[in-house]
Amino acid sequence: MPGKTILFTSGKGGVGKTTSTANIGVALASQDPNINVCMIDMDIGLRNLDIQLGLENRIVYNIVDVVEGACKARQALVKDKRLPNLALLPAAQTRDKSAVSPEQMITLIAELREMFDLILIDSPAGIEQGFYNSVAAADEAIIVSTPEMSAVRDADRVIGLLEAQNRKINCWLVINRLRPAMVQSNDMMGVDDVVEILNIKLLGVIPEDERIIVSTNKGEPLALAKSNKGNGAGQAYQNIALRLTGVEVPLMVFGENENIFVKQFNKLKALIKFS
Amino acid sequence: MGLLGWLTGPPRDVTSRDEAKKRLQLTIFHDRMEVMELPPDRLNALRDELLLVIAKYFEVDIGRTECTLEQDEREVAFVANIPVKRLRGS
Fold first, then answer.
1. In this structure, is residue B32 part of a structural domain?
2. Least Cα separation, residue A137 to chain B (angstroms)
3. B2 inside domain
4. Which residues constitute the domain of residue B76?
């Protein structure tokens, strides 16, 4: 069966598209050695997926070389040493978004679908050509947004553009960098607020987690860490990967250090406030 | 502050979370309109033209006519409420 293509997009930059692509990619590959996963960095001119994955020193060819016929797709793929079923097709760093066309992407993805079960496309920020190149062959889209106004607004715009495509692209929402304590004190929009505004299916919620920075420093996506327990970002990414393969995983509950009595008491307090 | 005061806490102010949500909902609504390229004066023009056509068939209560754009899930709907007095003879 030809592989499925999932697009990661957001409109706004800096919300965690590349981090999410890297972590969900390694999580998918680590969960099942029989699933072959390919990640494509479409941020031509500003590549970063390689560095998130710790594969920056192993790049020989890139996506522009492939579409221009300078090499075969197989030659440009960088295999991950930790996960033999994971590969990266890097972006070119010296070219720009116009170096690839949507038609070339459709041809390239058709070839990759024969080699991989899942193809994850990391789209660049913005809604210009790089975005349309990334959309050209996508079956599904994961919209990454933080619970901030500008990120949600841009996400809405991107969802509108995806819905306006001639093909039906299944859209999922990932809320990134949620700060449960701030939501609890009503200083940040919560999961329900963002879902209500964007009105698309929620795939998962990633809490703000300092370990993401440390893992990126090392080039080892957090989802790979052995110590992923509880309700950190690494586990949240693993859960998303499970959901993508059809496993039902309940949404993480944050703020679990509160005991049940405190929670019930707060509920009671809230009830009294309303009445 | 007595026990009741402690239980009920300080009066509920509008939180920055509520404010963000409200501003965002309004902004996104306007964004969606703009994408549909339908500024308010175009909406009024649409209402007037629509009334002309409807008035051919019905006697309508123009004063109580309401035309708005409403948001339904991810779609924007054009909703016209035009009270009809009676059918016009053909």
1. no
2. 24
3. no
4. 38-90
Which among B23, B24, B74 has CB closest to A199? B74
Alpha helices in chain A (DSSP H): 17-31, 49-53, 63-67, 73-76, 102-115, 129-135, 149-163, 180-184, 191-198, 211-218, 233-244, 260-274
Task: Considering only the beta carbons, identify the residue of B7, B17, B35 that sits closest to A189.
Answer: B17
Q: Which of A143, A148, A154, A186 to mutate to test the interface with B (most CBs of B within 10 A)?
A: A186
Task: Please report, in tens digits, the pLDDT of each residue of chain A (275 residues total).
Answer: 889 999 999 999 999 999 999 999 999 999 999 999 999 999 999 999 999 999 999 999 999 999 999 999 999 999 999 999 999 999 999 999 999 999 999 999 999 999 999 999 999 999 999 999 999 999 999 999 999 999 999 999 999 999 999 999 999 999 999 999 999 999 999 999 999 999 999 999 999 999 999 999 999 999 998 776 677 999 999 999 999 999 999 999 886 555 556 556 666 666 665 54
CA-nearest residue of chain B to A193? B21
Amino acid at B25: Q
Other C-beta atoms lying within 10 Å of the C-beta of residue A46: 15
- CB atoms under 10 Å from CB of B23, counted, come to 12
The CATH architecture of the domain made up of A4-274 is 3-Layer(aba) Sandwich (3.40)
- Partners of residue B20 in chain A, C-beta under 8 Å: 149, 188-189, 193
CB contacts of A186 in chain B (<8 Å) are 15-18
B27 domain residue, yes or no = no
Residues 198-217 in A contacting B (C-alpha not used; CB under 8 Å): 199-200
Is A210 in contact with A241 (CB distance < 8 Å)?
no
A266 touches chain B (CB under 8 A): no
B58 within a domain of the structure (yes/no): yes
Above 0.90 for ipTM, yes or no?
no
Is-contact A118 A37, C-beta < 8 A?
yes
Q: How many domains is chain B built from?
A: 1
d(CA B21, CA B26): 9
Q: Which residues of B touch A181 (CB under 8 A)?
A: none
